[in-house]
Amino acid sequence: MPVQLLKIVKGKPETPLPSHLQKEDFKHLQEGFDHTNKYFEGIVVVSYPLTKLGDGTDFFKVVLQDMDDFYSRINSINILIYGKMAEDCAKVTRSGDTFVVAGFKLEKSPTAREDGRHDCHLKLSEEAGSTIFIYTTSKKPAASKTASLSVAPKYLYTPLNDLKDGTVVNLYGIVKFFKPPYVSKGTDYCSVVTLVDPSNVKLTCTLFNGNLDALPKIYKVGDIVRFHRIKIREYNGQMQGITSGGFSSLTFDGTVGAPVVPRTSSKVYTFMDEEQKVIEELRAWAASNLSIPGPAAKLSGVQPMLFFDLTCQLVGKAKVDGSSFLLKVWDGTKCPYPTWKVPVEARDMEGDKVHLYQLRKLTVDILVYDNHVQLAKSFQIGSFLRIYSIHAKQVSAHQDVSHLEFHLHGGTCYGRGIGVLPESNPDVKELKAFLESVDLADTQNNESMSSLELDSTFNNLTDHELDLERCQQLSVTVLTDHQDLSNTDLKTILNSTAPQQYRIRAKLRTYKPQKLYQSVKLHCSKCNSLSEVPDGDNFDLILQGSAITAPNLELHNTSWYDSVMWTTQDQKQRKIAIHFVKHDEMLQQPEDTLLMIEGGTLKEIWKLTKRFKCVIPVRSTDNNLELLDLSVPFLVQGGTKYYGCKQCSSPKPMKSLSSIAAKQEPSWEPTEIAQVLGIEPLQYVFIMKFTLVDGTGALNAYLFDYEKFFQIPASEILTNSFLQEKMQMTMNMLCPPGRKLDDLPWLECFIRSYNVRNEMKHQVCYQIFDTTIAEDVV
DNA sequence: TTAGGATTTG
User: Fold this and answer.
1) What angle do CA A640, A643, A646 make, to 5 degrees?
2) I need a surface site. Which of A371, A393, A402, A434 has the fewest CB within 10 A?
3) Distance A183 CA to B2 C1' (A)
4) Rounded to the nearest 5°, which phi and psi values hold at A482?
5) Is the pLDDT of residue A716 over 70?
6) Bridge partners of A251?
7) Is the pLDDT at A56 greater than 80, yes or no?
8) What does DSSP assign to residue A492?
């Protein structure tokens, strides 16, 4: 029978397809392939009315969507059916049915350019010996002969590039932007969500509901949502989604490898293996195509003048005035800047007084305004909040002294708002564990409290003023050793022979370089050479050069790594191969995985380092995978590029890494990786020249510091704007711009003198050592 | 109905 309707039982056809038929891939529907005994399967996404051609032949056209590669740019194909077969099909076909077609004739499609579908179409007719099997999803059979059909309901999901005005659809999307639910000016809560999917089309949805719980539980950009029955409308020339009757949603964590557990308030929902597969596909697509922000900032990482999201616990709350409300929160870390305390009467502060006092040095005050007040009032003390787009406002109160204020301004621009996170949220679990581990005695003296001290919690103490005063009298640096030495004045040191060690008390009159990023160099501890940190342009050029050679397929998929390869769709048709190193024959979690990449660009490598633990750019030769030129990093981990010394390294092929992969718990430490690869690693170091004065004389001392002096790793400074800011603040504290010598703070340092001789001259130089910035300065 | 992404100016 040319057209057969098949009954579906438990998701499978009751009658199997004839065994001689084999499935044909969408991409193999090309001229030149033999399609005898092959079938193609797809879902009917469009069916046209039955028509008659000029010669009186019946004609029926449907569009089938390839479900194996649902998110390819081209994933649908025109099916043209003629004669009696057209008439039969037209009677029973419904959108969403699965069509299996065999015995078709393949031809170039004259409409491919205009309809964006497959460049071939399939022609079927009884005369040509074609067969069509239809798995119908319609509950109401279209023809009497199918009256016995029973099928599970099946949802059809529309890609975002295929949305039509006035329709109600089901869809999946990755959250690109969202406003957490807020109180609208009408009767409902409102949440605005912008989605994107692998068609690369965006859709902004405006969702209303009187019940906060009925809106999608989105916690961060990158979450994945499934919307059912969302209405599509055109607004300002673009498609827009809006809640319609029966709207429901599921939200999933967008992290690759995270459990696929839907967040929803619905008691009943469908979610099956197929849907799980879609979520996993979307996660994978997002991981390599979208830049999903990394972990949110902690209070210790707040950057002045910027906006940030904070996951925190509510410790106290208080009404301030009609348009603002105070939330006192903590996340277990200490903000490195002086922060303001909003003056509030103790009796107005809701929260556990003892807890508020104990945490007083770790809590920050966040003042929320206008539309956020109503929501803020409703939060329970102790609950976990995510506050989106807090403004870290830098306010100068006195000369050279500033503090940070945290405001959640009115309005909902940029997703500004507050959401309560459930205790089941992984970020909350992590935060709770961290808060429990915080040793309060570590950050403050945990003395017993008097009522007087309790009151002082709410006084507007300006800690930073006290800090400044301390800096005027005490030293802003401290010694880490040799406390028994007494001070020597600079004049005596200048008149002495080298080498010797001294303890000094001096002021920093000036320092070089003034542009702090210029102070970072690379140092080889073996040959003692110093070199500049290569710039990214050079990295990119070398990557481009290495991308010319195609990956060697013989080196793919070995016992210790799995490989994937693809070709870019741009004109260059660049081939990229990624080799994921396995452990115990298994792939590890992305955050534990080391991968090697061939043919990638700087941008692609950068994206991969956000997801994966280590990325090593490589190239293939006839026999081996090898490192690139040592002008580029031999390893990129987190934000840091690790370089090797060109003089002291003897690079080995990448297979040397397999010895680390085989270890019990490979930690992928850069030094260990360097060692097995024959690389002498270069270390990032700060090199600065301090001009020190003490009233008896002036001398230049070099600072050579990996981390100890500034308590900032030199390896991280170039990629971390917070650390740059912190270092600048430290230097401003050591040497405040525009101050008279009298007003400069004292530094206590150890210096050592040493001789530098060449043929022409002899010089005594000085180097600072065993000295660090005082804890309360940084 | 409400909002329709695109930082307050406290």
Assistant:
1) 175
2) A434
3) 9
4) 55, 35
5) yes
6) A225, A263
7) yes
8) H
CA of A209, C1' of B8: distance in angstroms: 28
Angle at A511 between CA A508 and CA A514, to 5 degrees: 135
| Alpha-carbon distances of A657 from A619, A646, A676, rounded to whole Å | 15, 20, 6
| Rounded distance between C-alpha atoms, residue A565 and residue A554, angstroms | 12
Which residue type sits at A34? D
- Asked if strand B contacts A184 at the CB level, meaning under 7 A, the answer is yes
Predicted confidence at residue A194, as pLDDT, reads 97
How far apart are alpha carbons A213 and A663 in whole angstroms?
A: 47
- Rg of chain A over Cα atoms, rounded to whole angstroms, equals 34
**Residue A336 burial (C-beta neighbours within 10 Å; 0-12, 13-18, 19+):** middle
3-state secondary structure of A687: strand
Beta strands in A607-743 (DSSP E): 614-620, 625-627, 635-637, 640-642, 683-693, 698-705
H or E segment to which residue A749 belongs: strand A747-757
For residue A86, count CB atoms less than 10 angstroms from its CB and return exposed for 0-12, middle for 13-18, buried for 19 or more. buried
Judge if the beta carbon of A715 is closer than 7 A to nucleic acid strand B.
no
Residue A411: how many other CB atoms lie within 10 Å: 14
Q: How far is CA A168 from CA A44, A158, A279, A341, A434, in A?
A: 17, 10, 21, 50, 45
Quick one: tokens of A103?
Answer: 């015995």
Q: How far apart are CA A142 and CA A147, in angstroms?
A: 8
Secondary structure class of A519 (helix, strand, coil): helix
A598 residue type, one letter: E
Contact A429, A423 (CB under 8 A): yes
Look up residue A89 and give its two tokens.
């099909």
Rounded Cα–Cα distance for residues A305 and A529 (Å): 39
Between β-strands A120-125 and A105-108, what pairing exists: parallel, antiparallel or unpaired? antiparallel
pTM for this entry:
0.47
Asked if A304 CB < 7 A from strand B, the reply is no
Pairing of strands A477-479, A417-421: unpaired
Strand B–CB A192 distance below 7 A: yes
Q: How much is the pLDDT for A778? A: 57
- Take residue A661 and report the two structure tokens written for it: 């992969």
Which has the higher per-residue pLDDT, A666 or A373?
A373
Residue A686, beta-bridge partner list: A520, A705
* Helix, strand or coil, per DSSP, at residue A206: strand
Looking at per-residue pLDDT, the higher value among A775 and A463 belongs to A775
Round to whole Å and give the CA distance between A158 and A483: 72
